[in-house]
Amino acid sequence: MIIKQLSVFIENTEGILECVTDTLCKHNINIVSLSLVDASEYSVLRMIVSDPERGREVLKEEGLLAKLTDVIAVKTPQKPGMLHDILTAFRDANLHVKYMYTYSSSENYATVIMRLSKLDTALSLIKQKGYEVCTDKEAYEIVNLN
User: Fold this and answer.
1) 3-state DSSP assignment of residue 76
2) What is the pLDDT along the chain (146 residues), one digit of tens a residue?
């Protein structure tokens, strides 16, 4: 299943992250997972949140540049080589992994957020390989994956 990631483009200024988190907090939007990528003057804050549409809306109201991006959350068994197996399958299918970051872990799974060149193809391949992806409910609410 494809899920929505909330991406916010922010200046590298003091207090900007607190502005984002304060805005989401005031609107009862939980940050499930995040990744912050720094550049010289700007950063990209990528988040899985409990209500992505509302999150984008309230951040835009604060004057921030926020958008939604389609990603997948792959449940990767906690065994050596599992992520490598998935990445090799993507490479063999000519799929480009644009970025990825950890979503959550349990005793049995590490869940990884991935943005790929062709999400539908990636989803089919994951299913063929016997892996699972998170549903939107799992992704936005941090449920126990065991």
Assistant:
1) strand
2) 999 999 999 998 889 999 999 999 999 999 999 999 988 888 999 999 999 999 999 999 999 999 999 999 999 888 899 999 999 999 999 999 999 998 766 778 888 999 999 999 999 999 999 999 988 888 888 644 44
Q: Which domains does the chain have, with CATH numbers?
A: 3-70 (3.30.2130.10), 71-131 (3.30.2130.10)
CA 114 – CA 12 distance, rounded (Å): 25
Closest of 113, 119, 116 to residue 142, by C-alpha? 113
Tokens in use for 143? 């449920």
Contact 67, 56 (CB under 8 A): yes
Backbone angles phi, psi at 52, to 5 degrees: -60, -40
User: What is the C-alpha to C-alpha distance for residues 51 and 32, in angstroms, rounded to an integer?
Assistant: 10
Q: How far is CA 54 from the centre of its chain?
A: 16
